[in-house]
Design a protein that fits this description.
Blueprint lengths: L1 H13 L5 H4 L3 E7 L9 H13 L4 E7 L19 E4 L10 H12 L3 E5 L10 H7 L14 E5 L2 E5 L12 E7 L13 E7 L12 E8 L10 E10 L2 E6 L5 H4 L2 H16 L41
Helix pairs in contact: 1-3
Length: about 325
Amino acid sequence: MKRALFIALAAAACLWAVPASAAGKKIPVMILTGEQGGPYHAWEETTPYLKRMLEETGLFDVTVVVAPPRGGDFSTFRPEWSKYKAVVGNYDAPDERWPDELKASFEAYVRNGGGFVSVHAADNAFPNWREYNLMIGIGGWRGRTEKHGPYWYVKDGKVVSDTTPGPAGSHGARLPFKIRNFVRHHPVTEGLPEEWMHAADELYAKMRGPGENMTMLSIAWSDPANRGTDREEPILMALQYGKGRVFHTVLGHDIAAMNCVGFIATFQRGAEWAATGKVTQKVPPDFPTATEVRTRPEYNPPPGWTSPGGRPPAKKQ
């Protein structure tokens, strides 16, 4: 049912796309989706939101590619990566899901200059695929441990690489939290306020991986009162993989979290940077402040909606 609903929503979204004559002037981007680690990450709901966010900039021509499900036939699944300037990963699958040939083709695409955008749980995927971990820098869950790389965070204003043993990946209840732009003069964060409030979301912590060629753009304090680490954890990252650029955001657990203008704007800017190496978009006037979460009514979840699976957002005390 959900898969059918997604296909219907995606088809409707195509009605909003630009005419074919104008599409060639836009940046071709693929959104890769079709699987997540559990029902709490509802790709059928989040993918149309991501597609609309990119299209509303007027910069992107977006194609959604749905991978076969668990148990599906991957023998003929050969995305034409080279048709796109960037691939947005709204996708989380275990190592064995992709055959080696498919993995190699994606590695070559990014290494030779293709852009990649990792959204939220895409950094849970493929824990033992070494090149994928180099692309995303850090990841969590699916059995990641110190064997996959150190923990990465900021302490006393410096990036820390922590080799302490332990599992990767944690978060508390979904609450609003403040994000600090650690690197302010990068195309993605240039012009954004130094601090801004993000809507209720999962604040990923204890993320670990190789962390090579990785720049932590934005960070957030993980509150011990909400099962946090008492550390400033990476939120937005920029990475280089060969000639390719990777933008990694841990934000966006569900469509309510994606309704934050901070998520929308940084996702749009990150996608443009991954695809082209620059950002031409202006900071929107409704961007969140250091004290105020800001959302957009057109991205409000539908009436009666509840976040799928898992715990509901915690209520403010």
